[in-house]
Amino acid sequence: MAEGNTVELDKVLLIANGDKVTVGTPTIDGAKVVATSQGEGKGKKIIVFKYKPKVRYRKKTGHRQLYTRLAIDKITGPTEKAHQRKKEVMASGT
Fold first, then answer.
1. Domain count of the fold of the chain
2. Can you list the residues of the chain whose pLDDT is less than 50?
3. Least CB-packed of 14, 39, 63, 94 within 10 Å?
């Protein structure tokens, strides 16, 4: 993802604001996170070494995982309609 692009994440698992904590089942309806990309990078190098004894087989390779660094701009919680819908679902038992 290019640097400066905005991404919106709508699958939020948990929101905490001081003592108020909202946990999703599995996600929170109506919650979203807006973030800005700060560019791509590579993780630490991981060495993969394969070896078989007595047959002179040795293979050494490396791997660096790519990742995108995000800066969180805004976290919006669920709306009142989502809270009401969740209460109705919990009350109905389905």
1. 1
2. none
3. 94
Evaluate whether 9 touches 71 at the Cβ level (below 8 Å). no
- Enter the tokens of residue 37: 């990309």
Q: What is the DSSP string of 14-62?
A: EEEETTEEEE-SSS-TT-EEEEEEEEEEE---EEEEEEETTTTEEEEEE
**For the chain, what is the radius of gyration of the CA atoms?**
22
CA separation for the pair 3, 43 (Å, rounded): 18
- What's the domain range around 69? 6-92
CB–CB of 3/38 below 8 Å?
A: yes
The answer to whether position 1 is within a domain reads no
Rounded to the nearest 5°, which phi and psi values hold at 13?
-90, -35
Predicted pLDDT at 87: 66
For residue 16, give the amino acid letter.
A
